[in-house]
Amino acid sequence: MVDQASESGFVEESEREMIHSVFDLGETLVRELMVPRTEMVWIEADKTVRQGLSLALRSGFTRIPVIADNLDNVVGIAYVKDLAKRVHDNPNSELSEKVEEHLRKATFVPESQTADDLLKQMQRDQIHMAIVVDEYGGTAGIITIEDILEEIVGEISDEYDDNETEEIEWLDENKARISARLHVEDFAEQFETKFTEDEVEDVDSIGGLIAKHLGRVPIPGSTIIVPGWKLTAERPSGRRHRIATVLAERIAESGKATDQL
Questions:
Q1: DSSP H stretches of helix in the chain
Q2: Same domain, yes or no, for 52 and 141?
Q3: Which residues form the CBS domain (predicted)?
Q4: What are phi and psi of 123, to 5 degrees?
Q5: What is the pLDDT of residues 72-126, one digit of tens each?
Q6: 134/232 same-domain check
Q7: pTM given for the model
């Protein structure tokens, strides 16, 4: 019926696609739309309120899952507005209080749940984020209401998004800005360095290399050291705030990866 209406000119092509997307939600599983655990930004419960606000500022996220001893033990969600209000009301709380003191209850959903059921649940319960769990109860990822809506209307971007990132932009002979999607082999060739097999195992891009070194998704300011170069994650891009560019600076010696909140 929708296709016939489109052929007759009663429904625009974009409207036809959107209607089909709505119907498809009933067959789309949460696991297909979620942000996987490897790309999650999270914070430990014992971090200070200041560290929580700093992470939010650097990552661009306003809601951050809070974990206890590991990522499979999510104890709640930290809302930036809650932390900011607390600091406004009591400036001393910035350093004296922990993130765990200002949590909201986390909602957990199975990865096998359909997207349309979850959308109804989120609208009914007025929640924006849910923790997705696998069949064993471990954290599989997170999903937001925007992830589901994006499946209907297409990718949602904002005024800060910029898809025109050069792969390599030399700033001077010892410094370059590179795309986080630059392949590690291309980086090694262009920057005259080498990686061990272990370093690049299961890694394709420079962004992936940084994530592997850190053991978590990189945010602006995250830094690692590779032979001859210091790599610093720069600005995020897109609604999921994935790192878009990396600053590469030539160094004399190698060191350890660092990532400070």
A1: 2-7, 13-24, 30-33, 49-59, 80-89, 93-96, 115-125, 145-153, 184-190, 197-200, 206-214
A2: yes
A3: 34-94, 102-159
A4: -65, -40
A5: 999 999 999 999 999 999 999 999 999 999 999 999 999 999 999 999 999 999 9
A6: no
A7: 0.70
